[in-house]
Amino acid sequence: MGLSVHYSGRIKDTSLIPKLVDEVLDICIILQWKYHVFDDNMVKGISFSPPECEPLFLTFSQNGKLCSPVLLQYNIDPATTISVKTQLAGIEVHKAVIKLLKHLTTKYFVEFELNDEGGYWESNDEKVLQRQFKNYEFILHAVGEALQDFKYLGQLLSDIAYATENVSWPFVEKELQLHDWITDEEEEKTTHTRNLEEWTGINKEQFPPVEMLNDEQMNYLLDALKKMLDEYNWSFVLQTHVPERIQYATIRDNFAQQAKVKRWHMGFFELCRPGTEHGKCAMGEYCQCAFYSEFFSGFIDEELTPKEERAKELEIEIKHIKRKYGDDWMKYYPYHLDANYDDENGNPYDYGFGDEDEDDDQDDNWWR
After folding, report:
1. Tens digit of pLDDT for each residue in 143-165?
2. Boundaries of every domain in the chain
3. pTM above 0.90, yes or no
4. pLDDT tens digit string along 87-124?
5. CB atoms < 10 A from the CB of 26, how many?
6. What's the CA gap between 55 and 48, in Å, rounded?
7. Does domain 1-134 have CATH number 3.30.310?
8. Residues 13/360, Cβ–Cβ less than 8 Å
9. Checking CA distances to 254, which of 53, 203, 274, 342 falls within 20 to 30 Å?
10. Residues 6+ apart with CB under 8 A from 356
11. Are 87 and 223 in contact (CB under 8 A)?
């Protein structure tokens, strides 16, 4: 809940990623925005967070497509849309984010799509943006008033907000340097675990059963819980569409779990208890484990020639986009993986690798 932007795209050439990272890093330092640099075998790029704004990811998979790092845990490389809520950050931050993305799009991207719920990306009109912010603020205010009649929920939301703003970390906060970075595997070996109830100070029993909540109350609680989990770097992440009521029930059912306290890499809320049979968890027919079990069924770890490996990648990609986009899947067809579209010069759908026709000396004062 809250005004957001949603974007996807692919970079002209993966060799441009370090330059993009350096430019965004300089901007973050100047504007005092939080940031994190990614540089491993699966994803490269940078994420950053203006004040009160959710993180923006400019991170790329090996084929140059924007990719949220959360997908690393599933060892797949799908096309993705990254969503960022700017509602709490305010109009000025929203404008800065849009201006930054416009600048980077022109300079580094061969493809880029963005849906701005504030209307500023399309119109460049601050009046349109102000009107949209007012509309969303009215909605949030109306929800807040509705919850006032339910005093218990108001107190619970206050407890969640307090836990969100007062995360207790078991390490000393300091400015991190690139040479401090460790791999996810290294962090897994050294990270501590904490009981999520003890860490947040909130018990599972405090959450009303979903049957006791109307849609407004449930959605407001769900949004607050997701935000809190993000602050604890123990994010509630789904890879398929799941109804909001089932999402809330899943968090409530599994809240008493051990969370890994990570500093460099993202941690993920466990959606079911270890050993639970597929489809028997709170998600039922929307079980994420069952989805991935089906997704990877039939694939065998074997030695493949480059031609066979490419064909296998095409098969996996098509299977995924059919599940994700339904009847519209052909709009996202991975032509770059299909040998039938090769010509004497290779594959014309190679996502722009090798194309470097932009002027590197563009004006970098767009944000002033």
Report:
1. 555 544 455 677 788 889 989 98
2. 1-134
3. no
4. 888 999 999 999 999 999 999 999 999 999 999 999 99
5. 11
6. 5
7. yes
8. no
9. 53
10. 12, 13, 15, 16
11. no
